[in-house]
Structure formats: C-alpha cells, structure tokens
Task: structure prediction
Amino acid sequence: MSELIKLKKELFNFIRPYLSSIIVAIILLLIVSSLALIGPIIIKRLIDVDIANGLYEGIWVSAAMYIAVKLATLAGNYFQMYTLQRVGVSIMCDIKLKLFSHILRLPLKYFEKNPAGKLISRIESDTETLRQLFTNTVMTLFQDLLMFAGMVAVMFYLSAKLTLILLLILPFLFAGAYYIQRELRVRFKIAREKASAVSKFLSEYIQGMQCVQAFNYEQTSKNKMGEHNEEKKGTFYFAEVLEIIFHNSILLAEAMTLSSVLYFGGAMALKKELTIGTLVLFIGYIRQCFEPIIRLSEQFNIIQKARVAAERIFEILSLEAEERAEGEISLASDASASFRDRIEFDNVSFSYDGGREVLSGVSFSVKKGEKVALVGHTGSGKTTILSLLLRFYNHTGGRITIDGADVSAMKLSELRKKFALVLQDVVLFPGCVMDNIRLLDDSISGAEVEKAAQSVNMLDFIMKKEKGFQTEVAERGSNFSMGERQLLSFARALAFNSEILVLDEATSSVDPYTEALIQ
Result:
C-alpha cells in the first residue's frame, strides 16, 4: 500500500501543472452526468403524463426537451474530451521528456544490463499507456460512478422495492471484479515483460540482419522468435480468458436483473403500485447501470497496465544518475582550468560490480603534447582505461589525476569537456552531416565544421554529394561506408576543439593513405 501511495504522489507531480484544466473537465463531467440522467425522466413524463392524458402539445414539448438535452450532452462531452486529450498528451510528453532526460544521465553500466528494446518500450509504450489512463480511463470511471449513484438515487426515490433487486446483485459483481483485477495486474506485468523481451529480440536481430543472412541463420532466428511468441501467447491468453469470463458474467447478471424487474415491476404496474413510465425508466436505468460495469473490465485492464507502466517508469526515474549537475560541489578548484601538464594513473585498480579485478596496480603518465599508444591483446583493458579516464566507470583503487587534480572530484561536465573521444564503433544520429559533426551545437560554426572535415580528408567527399553538409544520414549511417563513418566521427571530435584527443582504434576502418593524412 505504501508503494501505491508513493506511486500516486510521483504521478501527481506531473499532473499538478494541469490542475486547472482538470477542474474544468470535472465541472463539465458533472454537467454531462446530470444531463444523462434527465433523458429517461423525460421519457417517463412522456408516457405517464403526455400519452396517458392525450396531450399532443406535451408530446412535442417532451420530444424537444429530449433532443435539447441530448445536444447539450454531446456538446459537454466534446469539450470535456477535448480538454482531457490535451491534458493527457501534455502529461505523456512531460513524462517522456523527463524519462529520456534521466536516461541520458544514467551510468553506462546500466545500459550494459538493460537492452535498448526494453528502454524504448518504457519511453514509448509505457508513457502511451499512462496517456490512455489520463485521457479516458480515470474520468470515465469517475463519470460512471457519478452516473451510477445518480441513477440509484432516482430509482430508490421512485421505488425502493425494485431498487433493492439491483443492490442485492451488485456485491457479487464487485467481488468478482476485485478478484479479476488482482489477477490481471499480475498477468499484465508478466505480459509486458514478455513484450519487452520480444522488442529486444527483434531489435537485435533486425540490426544484425547482415550477419543472420551471411551465416544462413534465418530458420534458427525464426524458431527463436516462435519460442518468444509462445511464451507471450500463453500469458495473454490467460488474461483474455479472465476478461471474457468477467464480461459474460456481467451480461448474465444484467439479464437476470432485467428479468426480475420486468416480473416484479410488471406485477406492481398491474396493481397500480407503479406507472408504466416508471417501469420503462427502471429498464433504461438498469441497462445504463450495467454499461459502466461492462466497461469496468476494460478500465481495470487499462488501470493495471498503467500501474505496471508507472512502476516501471518510476523505477528508472529512481535510479541514481551520474553526478553532473551544475550545482555539484567540486573538490578540485581547477576542474575547469585548461590542461597544462599531464594525465597520471597512480596504482589504479578496477573491477566490474566488485568481482575479479580487470585492472590492478596500473601506473603511467602522459605529458601534454605527447602521443601515447596503449598496446595489448583483446580484453587486456585498453578501452577500460579510457572509460575510467572519462569516468564512464569509477576506479576502485588508486588515483587518476589531470594536472594533479583527482578526476573523481571534478564535475563530469567539466571533466569530459577536456576530451574528444573517437570510438571504433561509430554512432551516427538521425539528421544531416552538419548536425552529426557538431551534434546540434550552434556555437560551432559552419566554417569550423568544414575545417574539421578538411582535417580528416573528408571535405571533398562531402561537397561532392548533392546536398553537401545537409546530406541526410540514413539509419545507423548505412549510406556511408564504415571508413567514412569513422572519418565523420573523427571530424566530430576535432570540431569540438577539445584539449585531449582519445582514440579507441578510431582508424581501424580507414585506408593507410587517409590514416597517414590524419596522423
């Protein structure tokens, strides 16, 4: 229960900016709910007063009143839904932006344990589920409760005896709804986990399609997808069966209630204890009463999905981000000073998650202006050393200093600003070549971008393209060769004009001539 309360408080922080719009929607909801109660009352008046007494003018008045009420209801519904849609979409975008901003600040070790498909599902699917909750489910549930309470009050006023028939059946319906709600929550949580696993599988295999086809791995891949589908299918089947049972049980209860009302109400009408108009009103209200209960299964479905989605979203938001905020206290007074002297590793050790040390007692120094190559076999720790230097990971022993200042005491933003990093695995983003080189940083001029491209012998190649620096980069840079992608990455590093250049096998895919030019 405490976790649920915490979850509601966290969600309320996103709702708070839109409270005024939500209040407007609630007022409209109250008006619409009241108008919806009036329709059957007008029909009752038509039967018991106008038709019973042969009042032709009264029939016209009742018909006009009925259409006026319906038009007012439709108008109220329109403005209510318009307001809610705006609120729901705004909240979804706020959560999505907050979530993505937080993910950008998580340490790299988190991304090694959590695949891209899982995170994309959190940002896209889970926030969309919350949008449905805010735009439809919550207000619909509230409106249904108001309508139900209003209809029961009117029916009780007209005939307490007939109303008791409905009230005797309701406890059994709500007990069944509670049980199914509890089961659906568990099942939908499992189902979302299975869906995330499928997204991860598809992402990995589609990205690696060249390898799949080269090794004739299609059939095995298809079989693996079938296994994932079977696991997902079983979970969804059980949840759907529960929903079908619940839906049919409500329809049966509605039929039994209507039959009872027709029998007892008909008998009372024969005894003049009840008017025909009142009996018709009861039938109309009872059908309206069960419509919200039928919708309840769908609403429970969305509520359970939304609760699971919210838990998963706030689980990520609760993770500790890298300390890089501008207000972070820096123990190194010269953290933002220019690089003057040397980088030094002093007896540095490191292990992943407290396990076996992959680096132990590493010591070396690099003076300003020197070019130093780390040479070793695969897995010897070359890339790990670079990761420790930029604090993608924190070393577990020893000291790493820049001009005598411990990197552990520096703000991450100031530390990483000193470095330009070029990786073997090049990352290119959606957008044009210009945006990929300067990463949308408008402080870097077009002339500086051209100079960086010229430095890596890339300028002529870019300018030969029809749109030059405005050439769009295809998904994963597929319209450039591996060597060209590495050169773009190199140009990006030079464009930022950082003081220290760090290369991780950055020229492994370029030809010897171009590599010599870069050197």
Summary: The beta strands are 342-351, 357-367, 397-402, 405-406, 419-422, 431-432, 472-473, 500-503. The two ends are 63 Å apart (CA to CA). DSSP finds 16 helices and eight strands in the chain. Residues 325-333 have pLDDT under 50 and may be disordered.
